[in-house]
């Protein structure tokens, strides 16, 4: 008997790697990459997840995750919340005892996400070409369990992010991450700006790219 559509999601890939970003950087992590994204950030490195993919039922996803034998799971995309059944998947993963994180663009409502999930939410800078998609109503929903990420393309992006940090007192809501956009801003330059301004943010590089470049599934 076919699985009801209400229990299925379209996936691009499931794979085991190390977490390259955020609070759990370095931990062996299963990544569940959902297909589809309504945004088109100019620096996107996962455009292959915009289309295609295969339908999986939630039980099959959990069974595949379990095969890898690690406790950290990251649901990513694309934009995972573009699929309504992502919320059910997150809940099931938490119920199964995993440490679950969600990587989301910040353009969609995060209110329905299970509170056990660590939401790693972007604020899109002007350099992304998608800053108009930021859903600022999400900001009051963030807690100390969550993280907010800025991908910085240039000095103008940095100044914009610094202003958003101050205007919304983001460091008092959750951990704040600043990352240089690969190939657009030298990592050392961003680090020096943060140090000079003594910003209450965490500088981060994409560890998986240091190790494996832009190879999909790593």
UniProtKB/TrEMBL annotation:
Assembly and interaction partners: Homodimer.
UniProt-annotated binding residues for substrate: 18-20, 33, 76
Any single GO BP term: tRNA queuosine(34) biosynthetic process
Any GO molecular function: magnesium ion binding
Keyword entries, A-Z: 4Fe-4S, Iron, Iron-sulfur, Lyase, Magnesium, Metal-binding, Queuosine biosynthesis, S-adenosyl-L-methionine
Binding site for Mg(2+): 46
Keyword Metal-binding: yes
Protein known as: 7-carboxy-7-deazaguanine synthase
Described purpose of this protein according to its UniProt entry: Catalyzes the complex heterocyclic radical-mediated conversion of 6-carboxy-5,6,7,8-tetrahydropterin (CPH4) to 7-carboxy-7-deazaguanine (CDG), a step common to the biosynthetic pathways of all 7-deazapurine-containing compounds.
Native source species: Arenimonas malthae CC-JY-1
NCBIfam families: rSAM_QueE_gams
Annotated metabolic or biological route of this protein: Purine metabolism; 7-cyano-7-deazaguanine biosynthesis
Signal peptide region: none
């Amino acid at each position: 008997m076919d699985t009801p559509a209400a229990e299925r999601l379209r996936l691009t890939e499931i794979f085991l790697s190390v977490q390259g970003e955020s609070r759990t950087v370095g931990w062996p992590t299963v990544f569940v990459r959902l297909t589809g994204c309504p945004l088109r950030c100019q620096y996107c490195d996962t455009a292959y997840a915009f289309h295609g993919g295969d339908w999986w039922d939630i039980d099959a996803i959990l069974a595949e995750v379990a095969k890898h034998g690690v406790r950290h799971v990251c649901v990513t995309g694309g934009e995972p919340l573009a699929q309504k059944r992502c919320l059910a998947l997150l809940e099931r993963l938490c119920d199964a005892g995993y440490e679950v994180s969600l990587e989301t663009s910040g353009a969609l409502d995060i209110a329905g996400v299970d509170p056990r999930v660590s939401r790693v939410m972007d604020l899109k800078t002007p350099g992304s070409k998608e800053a108009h998609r930021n859903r600022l109503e999400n900001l009051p929903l963030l807690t100390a369990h969550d993280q907010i990420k800025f991908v910085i393309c240039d000095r103008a992006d940095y100044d914009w992010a610094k202003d958003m940090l101050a205007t919304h007192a983001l460091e008092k809501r959750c951990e704040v991450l600043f990352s240089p956009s690969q190939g657009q801003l030298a990592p050392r330059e961003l680090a020096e700006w943060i140090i000079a301004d003594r910003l209450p943010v965490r500088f981060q590089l994409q560890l998986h790219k240091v190790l494996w470049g832009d190879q999909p599934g790593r």
